[in-house]
Amino acid sequence: MNTKTLPVNECVQNVQSQILSTQNHFFTGSLQLEEIGEYIPGSVMVQDLKVLTNTYMNNKGCEILKKSKEELAAMGPNYFRDFFPAEEVSWF
Fold first, then answer.
1. How many domains does the chain divide into?
2. N or C: which end of the chain has fewer CB within 10 A?
3. Are 62 and 72 spatial neighbours (Cβ–Cβ below 8 Å)?
4. Do 48 and 59 fall within a single domain?
5. 17 exposed, middle or buried (CB, 10 Å; 0-12, 13-18, 19+)?
6. pTM of the full predicted structure?
7. Are residues 57 and 69 in the same domain?
8. CA 92 to CA 88: how far, in whole Å?
9. How far apart are the C-alpha atoms of 2 and 37, rounded to whole Å?
């Protein structure tokens, strides 16, 4: 196992390269949001602000909110009422 620590600037360049590569795969259609969302160690969500509904939540986000993807989608505008501060919802 390699335990060598990379300099910070090299780590940043590696991460930037990985993000660009992922973005390119996503925009060319060779990666789907669902595939990317499961690799990110945090909540990944997509909202449709025109109709105020959640259209995608990765598994980590569902665990945090204690709701399934289907339950979140079925909430419609109540999703925002339940999980966002009122001042943010009024801004949407």
1. 2
2. N
3. yes
4. yes
5. exposed
6. 0.64
7. yes
8. 7
9. 28
Q: How far apart are CA 30 and CA 51, in angstroms?
A: 28
Q: Which domain holds residue 12?
A: 8-39
H or E stretch at 19 = helix 8-28
The per-residue pLDDT for range 24-46, each reduced to its tens digit, is 887 888 888 888 888 788 899 99
Which residue ranges of the chain lie beneath pLDDT 70?
Answer: 1-3, 92
Residue with tokens 């335990």: 3
Q: Are residues 84 and 55 located together in one domain of the fold?
A: yes
pLDDT at 32: 82
What does the block give as tokens for 55? 């259209």
In the block, tokens 């300099």 appear at: 7
